[in-house]
Design brief:
By secondary structure, this protein is α/β, with parallel strands linked by helices. The chain has 9 helices and 7 strands. It has a 7-stranded mixed beta barrel. Helix 3 (about 170-180) packs across helix 4 (about 180-215) and helix 7 crosses helix 8 (about 285-315). The longest helix has about 45 residues, at about 230-270.
Length: about 325
Amino acid sequence: MKMDSNKRMITVGVFVLIGIVIFIAAVLTLGGQKKTFEQKSTLKAVFKDVNGLQPGNNVWFSGVKVGTVKKISFTPNALVEVIMNIENKTMQYIKKDARAKISSEGFIGNKIVVIFGGTMQSAHVADDDILAVDSGLGTDEMMATLQQNNQNLLDITGNIKSITERLMNGQGSAGKILSDDKLANDLQAAIIGLKVASAQVQRITSDVAGYTSQLQTEGSLTNSLIHDTVFYGRLTATTAQIHEASISIKESSANIKRITSNIENVSKRLDSTGSPVGVLLNDEEAGKNLRVTLANLASGSKKLDEDLEAIQHNFLFRGYFKKKDKQKDD
């Protein structure tokens, strides 16, 4: 009887010991998951709406769990203050200009606080710092947006249905093209013409490209004009000479015009009887008189020669003329 009692006590003691071990393991496991035994600092954030966030929910930073929600309370101005326990070893990575928002672990999962952002130039947060918040979309807003998107999708489907019915009934330009074979053939012919025109344009473009490449051929006139500075200088000098020649030609043309005008004036004066030459050229009587006068002058000159010859042989002047001849001979 005493032996059975001892066995029972031993069995109970074993089960109690096993229970204690299991309890300690559970506490350590849960404490490790909640990170209960790690040193933590406190960060705060003030939201207008926490969308069902509860104390004990997780806090995430860059996709890593860094703490839990410690306390949720109202502020005097009816906002919600969330106090978070954050692991000390991660405080150095969270910057003072980082922001906090309410999110969820899944589409319908537990609510969490997500810390994001922050610049490298900013200092890291300290204990009891207050983070700025970002009002993300809550579940209600997401459902409202989804409902609005569904309504828009329904409207688009209705519009597509209406357009399809009009196309099938031959309404509108597209409907006529689908229902009218002649119009479709005309459109096909127009497309073919457009392809032909496009091919011609492409061929012309190719020809222009070939011509341009020929212009760039070394030794050609255009290539020399572009690249040969000596040739360009000669061409410039030639152009200047041509310009000077054109100016000279212009001046010569003006002189010829002036001479022509003078000749025309002289011709008019010769044709007029107001000048002596004009009288001689146009008045026959004056011409006859002039010829008679010239004849008389010729006859008088001949007689004068004869008289001079007679004077030379006259004894009164013979000594004078001999003296003159002697002076010439000396």
